[in-house]
Amino acid sequence: MSKIILREEEIDFSAIRAQGSGGQNVNKVSTALHLRFDIRASSLPDIYKQRLLALNDSRITKEGVVVIKAQQHRSQDKNREEGIARLLALLESVTHEPVIRRATKPTRASQRRRMDGKTLRGEIKSLRGKIVD
What 3-state DSSP class applies to 59? Predict the structure, then answer.
């Protein structure tokens, strides 16, 4: 597993007001953060960039920018740490090599067991019908 190193200048933070309850603190203080990370302009290896852009993730825009909104905590520093952790988790998910599925055939014995089970089930169901004299 490779260790991903992000440079601070590749991540753009902008403070916004958090949503939800919190009273006057929510109305006055911008504690939530929008974290923006441009995949194409980053220093990530090309294979990771391709995998990230291929992901069907709502946090990745059509332009290839990852946008994460961190507003869990009441302090900006904790929200910054949470946003970076979520970005690293997203980047870590593409570092693993996807396993290629190899098609296999079922064995003759397993095919026979399957067909025997289907026949038995059909017999049981046929016994549920009306009795004819």
Answer: coil
CB burial of 59-98 (b: ≥16 within 10 Å; e: otherwise) equals: ebeeeeebebbbbebeebeebbebbbebbeebbeebeeee
Residue-range domains of the chain with CATH: 8-93 (3.30.160.20)
List all residues 6 or more positions away from 78 whose beta carbon is below 8 Å from its beta carbon.
72
Q: Which residue in this structure is represented by tokens 């004299």?
A: 133
* Cβ atoms of 91 and 52 closer than 8 Å: yes
How does pLDDT run across 80-100, given as a tens digit for each residue? Answer: 899 999 998 988 888 888 889
Residue 19 one-letter amino acid = Q
The answer to whether the pTM exceeds 0.70 is no
Answer whether residue 1 shows pLDDT above 60.
Answer: no
